[in-house]
């Protein structure tokens, strides 16, 4: 067995650690790039969403490097994600890759815990380590993805306050490059601990009042930087502080809480007024996050999703109402393989300009709010 998996943000680092701990051979998918997208788009149905094209591109590249077992998450959900696995199998078979083994990690609530364990045991059987070490390996992989998500969140937030311009982005890229070079889980944990402490102690200027933006939308597109033109890093260049709730570790925790209906409680509650039912993907989470963002102190939100993404199209139709009701600016960016980066940047810059002038305008208004207090004082002297 030579296993491979899609490259989705920090998921690849967790899977790398898991395979190293389990001592099973693996092919680490390369970072997504134009070639990955071109290959995936060429062999995909035209109307399928961008994540599918990148996953297919990843798999073809990894199979060419020797992978024969493909691990993918599945779903019976209402959007195209439910079709991903069947479609991947058919396309890869048509391309002549016939000796592949697919392991589909469907939700245990949908396929039953027994079937879920049977599927996972196919990976476990290929590992020579003891049962207790396998459990430890799973735990370590989760710790890795959780730490990576934490470090990313600190870097994106602190970019708005950094004393040395560009430091957060430079250190973020440095740690990612080094993490992909780690040879074992111990090395990975040491590296992540080091960078977590680095960001905890980075020099900041808390007198700054940067623009703060929430990144919301379809989960693959917002956690995989290539598919969103590295928006969080671009915003770091502008000195913007960003916040994103959806992450791979959030997704895992949510999945565990789903059977007891404790998943995304606060987000779903916030979305309730506008979207009381789940519509597939993370459409409801997008709406809930938009409602909550102002309370988090954000100046605006950017929704990102792939062209034709059904749950996000529904969420998008609701966002103008939230924008109006909460007086909270929200911009939508739709990405696909033909989206041009220049047009995308122009829109982001225009949105930042608008947020900045709104912020300035609110600051100018602040002294007016205190005027009645002054008048009352004068009145008392009389
Ligand atoms: S959530 Fe959207 S992008 Fe993701 S699989 Fe479903 S339709 Fe495609």
**Which value, in Å, is the CA radius of gyration?**
23 Å
Helix percentage range: 55-70%
The domain tally reads 3
> Total number of β-strand segments?
7
- From the N-terminal CA to the C-terminal CA, the straight-line distance is 89 Å
What is the average of the pLDDT values? 91
Classify the fold: give the CATH topology of the largest domain.
Answer: Rossmann fold
Q: Choose one word for the global shape.
A: globular
How would a crystallographer describe the biggest sheet? 4 strands, parallel
Q: Spans with pLDDT under 50 lasting ≥5 residues? A: 370-382
Bound molecules: iron/sulfur cluster
Q: Count helical runs.
A: 16
Question: Could you state the order of secondary-structure elements as H and E?
Answer: EHHHEHEHHHHHEHHEHHHEHEH
Q: What strand line-up does the widest sheet have?
A: 5-4-6-7
**Could you say what the CATH architecture of the largest domain is?**
3-Layer(aba) Sandwich
* Top CATH class of the largest domain: Alpha Beta
- Percentage of residues in DSSP E strands: 5-15%
> Helix/strand/pairing class, anyone?
alpha/beta
